[in-house]
Amino acid sequence: MTSPTRTPSASSPNLPSLDDAWSPDSWRTKPIKQDVVYTDREALDSAINRIRDLPPLVAPEEVDKLRDLLKDVSEGRAFLLQGGDCAESFDYCNSSQIEDKLKILLQMSLVLIWGMRLPVVRIARMAGQYAKPRSSSHEEIDGKKVLSYRGDNVNGIDPNDRDPDPQRLLMAYFHSVATLNHIRSLVNTGFADLHHPNSWDLGYVKDDSARDHYKAVINSMLDSISFMKTIGADQSSEVLKTIDLFISHEGLLLEYEQALTRKALNPAARALLGKPATIFDGVESPPFKPKDFVGHLRSWYNLSTHFLWIGDRTRQIDGAHVEYFRGIRNPIGVKVGPSMAPEELPRLLDILDPDNEPGKVTLITRYGASKIEKYLPAHIRAVKATSHKVVWCCDPCHGNTTTSSTGYKTRSFGAILEEIEKSITIHQNNDSLLNGIHLELTGDHVTECTGGSENLCEGDLSSNYRSFCDPRLNYLQSLDIAFKISKNYENSRQAGSM
Fold first, then answer.
1. Binding residues for phosphoenolpyruvate
2. Mean pLDDT of 466-479
3. DSSP code string of 105-157
4. Which residues are recorded as binding Mn(2+) (predicted)?
């Protein structure tokens, strides 16, 4: 995305101030990373203007509900499960793949609830996770230098389809709509009813003891649900019949995000006026006065999704992404890795969470199993020295990516689990609490990560390697993670340490 107004010098950064005026396009005055250069600016403007006129994908009330739930997560009263594809493909917008991802998230959350005895807040990396940051603008394929693949909403995976196409932004919108529509229909028509859970596919488990343990836990859960139904204990509650499922993506393409940023009545206004969050265009005031009072009752929401995060490559304090994110009402995430200096964190949180709202910011930590002990403690201490109450979420996938001896980009299940377990321990040792996990996963039986209870090795990767981006945990490996975390917390709970 190219804009002639984005020219501040990186050598003399224009740092955001809490007193600076904010608008959905104030990010254009800041330097930007991971830019996409469109050769046809007129076509880009046409696509963005069309998106600006289209309806929002989510409702402001849903965003505010997630804000409330993440407050509980930040205070240890609930646990966050976030998962989905590294980068969605438009081809993933089909009923079977959507249902498989929803199924694994539901089953994982049920296992976590069982072991942790906490509600689980579910956020899917779906219905908008089409953009992908890259370390280089170009790559070499068959001896030819081409633009890097940046995700289906920018260009194509085919080397001959690498020119950024603004029409792909419109395609991303409509694929998001279709995906979200199917998710809503599933959730509202019994797919998530825990009285009739989808079958648990344990046929790939090669370890007999693991299979027996999983079956015992599942049978115990389902027996408990059946018992509650028999005695009528669940008749007055919808908790077991439906779920809240929220969607998320990385807020990378700011012109797209700006087009779906709308002004709406915030909860204070809705309570005062007794009406839903009618969406305004941000120019005209609603038909009640005084005008300056009304201004305090309306907030800017990004209505392309419920939850957005800033990537590790775009979280510069003086950058365009932080400038955009600081003004939206949505709860937001920030990826935190080894390159984040501890003294940066308080400055970043002051900008993104000026009101010290519990759960407003989720810190998604991604170090790698071999590096987490070096970096996480200092980051925890830096946050504890402030008044900010964040959600601490472990992303154990990104820091554990390697290349196999057979040439496949892969991840080790053992390293992923090791980073999660170390994260739990480090938080405990620093008077903190791990509040959630963030996983790249799929509900399919792909062979992209090694290890797990089906004992995948490097030689198995070629049998069903489908990712065009980063390797994902498959259905069973994802369940393995849920069972391991659940058992960890169950043991700690029984020992009286949590």
1. 125, 335, 366
2. 94
3. HHHHHHHHHHHH-S-EEEEEE-SS--B---S-SEEEETTEEEEPP-BTTT--S
4. 86, 398, 440, 470
Q: What pLDDT band is residue 197 in, cutting at 50, 70 and 90?
A: low
309 within 8 A of 335, measured Cβ to Cβ: yes
**Residue 37 DSSP class:** -
| Cα–Cα distance, 336 to 124 (Å, whole number) | 20
What letter does residue 306 receive in the DSSP assignment?
S
Q: What is the Cα–Cα distance from 185 to 98, expressed in whole angstroms? A: 11
Q: State how beta strands 401-403 and 391-394 pair.
A: unpaired
Q: In the prediction, which pLDDT does 270 show? A: 85
CB 255 within 8 A of CB 44: yes
Hey, what are 424's tokens? 């739990």
Residues marked as binding? 86, 125, 335, 366, 398, 440, 470
Of the candidates 70, 108, 104, 66, which has an alpha carbon nearest to the alpha carbon of residue 85? 104
Q: Give 132-138 contacts, CB < 8 A, sequence gap 24+.
A: 132/86, 132/87, 132/252, 132/469, 133/34, 133/250, 133/252, 133/311, 133/313, 133/314, 134/34, 135/313
Coil vs helix vs strand at 302 = strand
Write the pLDDT tens digit of every residue in 254-279: 999 999 999 999 888 888 888 888 88
pTM of the model: 0.91
Q: Which residues are annotated as a binding site for Mn(2+)?
A: 86, 398, 440, 470
Per-residue DSSP letters for 207-218?
-HHHHHHHHHHH
CA contacts within 13 A on the Cβ side of 379: 32
| Mean pLDDT score, 436-441 | 98
**Residue 455 CB neighbour total at 10 angstroms:** 13
